[in-house]
Amino acid sequence: MLKRWKHKLPTREKIFASRFFKPFAHLFDKPEYWAFKRDKVALSVAIGLFCGMLPAPTQFCFALVLAYFLRTHLPIALFSTLYTNPLTLIPLYVAAYKLGSWLLYGSMPLTELVMPALDDAGFWQQAAAWAARFGAPLAAGVLTIGALLALAGYVLVQLIWRWRIHRRQNVRKQRAAARISPQRHEP
């Protein structure tokens, strides 16, 4: 399974051929950003899951920066941010708001979450008041869910990777035992 996914990940040439990543090619031209090792993959998944909860236009940028400073597998860090999309982002942010308001205030009714309409007079003042009131619970929830997803992703990758190694070792032992033990043929 890992071999199948490893070959489906984009290569460094494909990533840095895009005009967005081309200016960063010289920064990521080191083997540690492309090493397919258990700890690097697990940390990359954690980075991607955490950054996936951040506001949509900044997800890849933050994943790129964190992958750079933590020297993890770049394609996996970027790829694992993609669990958020237009279909999943709204439910995740509503859950983040509910969690954040529970963490900060105990509870807050969700019906007040509606933003002011753009055509309203005094939109910017209303939008600023809305952000001041609902921004803190949303930010707390986004960071909490992102951290929990990152922790779960890191642990899950570590467990699956170790399970696969253990399983592979058992298969090798069984094959070696079958080759070594003489087969009995009864007349």
Automatic annotation (TrEMBL):
Residues 22-169 form the DUF2062 domain. InterPro entries: DUF2062. This is DUF2062 domain-containing protein. Keywords: Membrane, Transmembrane, Transmembrane helix. It holds the Pfam family DUF2062. It comes from the Bacteria. The chain crosses the membrane at residues 41-70, 76-95, 138-161.
